């Protein structure tokens, strides 16, 4: 290869990396350098080209630094033109702990609750733990903060144009449709029936484990529990994942795609594209999504073919008879596919994770378990609970879940992008295009927000004090984009917590192994291995798998 051809390719690659006036100045420099290489030997030309590219890269890094550095917002000490990139790389496995450490550092210096972090080729992120700012972004200036193209490009292959990915009118229409479905009253009875039925299968698996002395991965069982429940409630389909230990092909493909996609958030677009091209993971995502897509389209076709949709209670049947308020026509399959997969992510992973982390905390807190058992015996002494019991009477159970979510929010961090310049309530100046982030995981651990016992698992704080509201505890978001599933989560999770706690003692096998995997949602990296002990007949009011007898 001649030195010149090689050089021009290199310059071309740089050209696609960059844009803007300064960039063209840099490129002119590169071209000038290339022209001089024409008189060199091939080896010298390669050396000169490499040197030129390195010099150009350094120039770009310094330009990026100049563009991103903010003198009006605090940040941790950075690595010159590399910003915080080296630390982000070093802390890719404990990203949340690093963020907490960073926030503590700022608070101890008197910087306040808002700081920023930057790295080359990634959007600058202004990160806040101030509930006033969170309220401002989520509610007061809702229209000024959007998910934006970064989120859309990363997630498009999986979420399509579904509700999680959408902004503006596209989001508004879907929100309306989804909100309508969640207000249907008879849906609640159907839901309750499904949750109790699946809870019974879960407890029968735990009983088998207790009797055979087998250690179980409760995290995996809870994923199966929420998958089975949501498949029935959402799509009227029974897949009985809980009755087996085998991987479910579509769920495995979907999980693999999620794992690869989640990693994209810690990189710039070019970085993840290049890495996925080299590792073949880009193609793998596409293949996995073909499996998930086929699953979704088959579900839609089957439900449509069965007919009688008007009398069915599941979400998909309701979607199939609904008309898009925009077009006045039924939703096309491609939009139904997006809804199916968006709701599956919402309905399965987050609830399974919240239950897993809450059981983890309960297993370390015998006092909370004793209080919960006393409440269960008091409010449902004879027979299965109804909707009212779970939603109104198991107050300590609900407090246990809220406390579990405070310390381990299923969505640990959120990002939105500013449409226009703005000023936050704490005085932080936001520029058009800035990424703004808040981290429920970090907020839940700050003594400044929760008192000196912030790191302790204390369900009582939800009973003894006023509810903190959605902006100090943004676990389910707040404002117009509040989680639509929150009431459903409390029914399913409180029923499941009560059912398991009433019948079993859970012993953690290796508590030190219970750690998160950095991802969009708070998975347990090594699962939740427990030894299950059936409570003696004297501990319960009766034998059996009824919810509370
Ligand atoms: C513990 C369980 C759950 C947690 C912690 C949770 C949390 C959240 C959060 C933080 C968001 C905002 C996401 C974003 O905009 O980036 C959200 C949105 C949403 N959630 Fe949940 N969620 C849970 C369970 C569920 C369930 C079971 C459903 C229903 C099937 C559901 C349905 C939705 C929907 C439809 C949205 C989109 C709302 C919108 O953008 O307008 N969620 N959830």
UniProtKB/TrEMBL annotation:
Its cofactor is heme. The keyword Oxidoreductase applies. It comes from the Eukaryota. GO terms for biological process: lipid metabolic process. The chain crosses the membrane at residues 45-63. Keywords: Heme, Iron, Membrane, Metal-binding, Monooxygenase, Oxidoreductase, Transmembrane, Transmembrane helix. InterPro entries: Cyt_P450, Cyt_P450_CS, Cyt_P450_E_grp-I, Cyt_P450_sf. The keyword Iron applies. Heme binds at residue 483. One of its GO terms (molecular function) is monooxygenase activity. SUPFAM superfamilies: Cytochrome P450 (SSF48264). Gene3D superfamilies: Cytochrome P450. Belongs to the cytochrome P450 family. PANTHER family: CYTOCHROME P450. This is Cytochrome P450.
């Amino acid at each position: 290869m001649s030195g010149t051809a090689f050089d021009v390719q290199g310059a071309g690659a740089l050209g696609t990396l960059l844009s803007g006036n300064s960039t063209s100045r840099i490129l002119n420099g590169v071209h000038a350098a290339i022209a001089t290489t024409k008189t060199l030997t091939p080896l010298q030309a390669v050396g000169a080209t490499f040197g030129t590219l390195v010099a150009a890269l350094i120039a770009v890094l310094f330009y990026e630094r100049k563009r991103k550095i903010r003198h009006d917002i605090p940040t941790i000490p950075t690595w010159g033109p590399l910003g915080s990139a080296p630390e982000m790389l070093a802390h890719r496995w404990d990203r949340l702990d690093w963020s907490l450490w960073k926030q503590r550092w700022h608070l101890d210096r008197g910087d306040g609750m808002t700081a920023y972090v930057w790295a080359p080729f990634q959007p600058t992120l202004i990160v806040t733990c101030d509930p006033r700012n969170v309220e401002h972004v989520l509610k007061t200036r809702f229209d000024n903060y959007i998910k934006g193209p970064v989120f859309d490009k990363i997630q498009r292959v999986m979420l399509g144009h579904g509700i999680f990915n959408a902004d503006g009118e596209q989001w508004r229409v879907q929100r309306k449709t989804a909100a309508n479905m969640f207000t249907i009253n008879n849906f609640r009875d159907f839901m309750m029936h499904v949750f109790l039925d699946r809870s019974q299968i879960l407890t029968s698996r735990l009983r088998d484990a207790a009797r055979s002395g087998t250690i179980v991965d409760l995290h995996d069982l809870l994923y199966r529990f929420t998958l089975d429940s949501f498949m029935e409630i959402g799509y009227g389909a029974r897949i009985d994942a809980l009755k087996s230990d085998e991987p479910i092909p579509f769920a495995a493909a979907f999980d693999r795609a999620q794992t690869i996609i989640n990693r994209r958030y810690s990189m710039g677009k070019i970085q993840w594209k290049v890495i996925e091209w080299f590792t073949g993971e880009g193609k793998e995502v596409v293949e996995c999504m073909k499996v998930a897509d086929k699953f979704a389209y088959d579900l839609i076709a089957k439900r449509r073919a069965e007919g009688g949709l008007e009398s069915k209670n599941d979400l998909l049947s309701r979607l199939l008879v609904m008309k898009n308020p925009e077009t006045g026509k039924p939703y096309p399959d491609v939009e139904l596919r997006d809804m199916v997969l968006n709701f599956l992510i919402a309905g399965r992973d987050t609830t399974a994770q919240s239950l897993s982390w809450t059981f983890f905390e309960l297993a370390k807190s015998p006092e909370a378990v004793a209080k919960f058992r006393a409440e269960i015996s008091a409010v449902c002494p004879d027979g299965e609970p109804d909707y009212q019991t779970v939603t109104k009477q198991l107050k300590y159970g609900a407090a246990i879940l809220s406390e579990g979510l405070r310390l381990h929010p299923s969505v640990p961090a959120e990002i939105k992008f500013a449409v226009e310049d703005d000023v936050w309530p704490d005085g932080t100046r936001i520029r058009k295009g800035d990424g703004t982030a808040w981290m429920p995981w970090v907020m839940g651990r700050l003594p400044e927000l929760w008192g000196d016992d912030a790191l302790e698992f204390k369900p009582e704080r939800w009973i003894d004090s006023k509810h903190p509201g959605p902006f100090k505890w943004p676990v389910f978001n707040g404002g117009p984009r509040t989680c639509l599933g929150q009431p459903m989560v409390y029914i399913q999770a409180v029923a499941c917590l009560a059912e398991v706690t009433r019948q079993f003692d859970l012993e953690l096998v290796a508590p030190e192994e219970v750690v998160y995997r950095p991802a969009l949602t708070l998975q347990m990296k090594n699962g939740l291995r427990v030894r299950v002990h059936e409570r003696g007949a004297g501990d319960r009011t009766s034998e059996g798998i009824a919810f509370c007898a």
